[in-house]
What does this fold into?
Amino acid sequence: MAAASGRWVGAGAAVAGLMLLAAAGRADDKEPKDSPLRAELKGLKLNEASTDDAQNGKLRTLMKDKEKAKKLVAEAAKMMKEAKDDKPFNYNGAVVLADAALRLREFDTAETFYQHQVEVATKLKSGAKMRDAHLGLIGLYLDAKRYGDAVDACERAVDARGPAEFENAKAVFLRSLVQAKARQGKFDEALNMTKGLLELTDNAWQFVQLKGWVQREAGKLDDAIATYAEVIDKVEAEKGLEQKTKDAIKDGVRYTLSGIHVENKEVDKAAKHLQTLIKRNPDNPTFKNDLGFIWCDHDLNLEESEKLIREALDLDRKQQEKLKEEGKVDEVRESAAYLDSLGWVLFKQKKYKEALGPLKKAAADEEQGNHLEIWDHLADCHYALGEKKEAVAAWQKALKMEDISKRDGERRRKVSEKLRKAKEELEKE
It folds into this structure.
């Protein structure tokens, strides 16, 4: 028995040794454990978001925590660069990540995902995806003010070939090409291109509208006003459009005209367009806010301006509450633009203490409040209240903001002068 027992003990030890070796082999075969960020990205299942609603839902989830979103998007881009052939994100995942990066103003990262969309869509030979991917990339370059890259992207899209849905978008790519040229300051070239498009399309209203856009960019405001008025007539005469569509297009043109009239210092004409739009669209908060702001900014109809702006805030809140009920937004947030308008109309009425609250709230909005004008208004209010240190800090913050419109250049000069004077006053105190 002792001898037999010894043999079995030896055999058991051998089996145990083999088992340990096998276990060690299996441990060696295991893939490296994902980092917490990569595990979270996989858990989001972005590649499964195949519809617009699903992609928007994933985007909302991703953007709930902006600091975390920045890390996740950066990690996703790193994963893309590390992968040689089998990329970790398909077209759907790239759509969500590109949108997130764009919202975070991470332009280089967004470019990675838009370019991936173009490559995948082209391989899939999906006309709709090719169209959307190229437009997304072009839009990114325009938003990032990389106008040379935008021109190149437009030209590549025009030269590329694809299914009907892609080919039918060539007019949109050409329009974007004209806009990119204009943003480069090449106004004559942009207008000549527009002239050629008008000749090819028998003065189609879309390209008449483009002509007006270029004229506005070039500072030819009277010409732009005349051209946009022509657009309204052409749209009304268009036989292939339903009246409802015509009305919507004309409303958009009237809204554009209101902005051009403000730039042209024709406030009364701008107000007339907005009043028409309010009558036609009484539940549209934008039109009410804009009319109220334009009036108060020029010290006109201050009580009526305040009423319109408060109505805009109320309408906007109700619309967001409905969207939340439908699951389309996660939270109801007051518009920074409308809050700024409210603060400004109260400021104009010399209700400085009352104005400070909405102005602070507008400036605190990290998404919508990063605007030179909003921070300038906040600084003006602090200054009027005798809070010069706070005013200086707000004006300094204002100067860190990007210029969004041509008016911002002029405002930047004024802010710099106000900041200089406020600093001098503080030094004397």
Observations:
- The two ends are 105 Å apart (CA to CA).
- The longest helix spans residues 2-29.
- Residues 185-281 form a domain with the Serine Threonine Protein Phosphatase 5, Tetratricopeptide repeat fold (CATH 1.25.40.10).
- The CA atoms of residues 191 and 211 lie 7 Å apart.
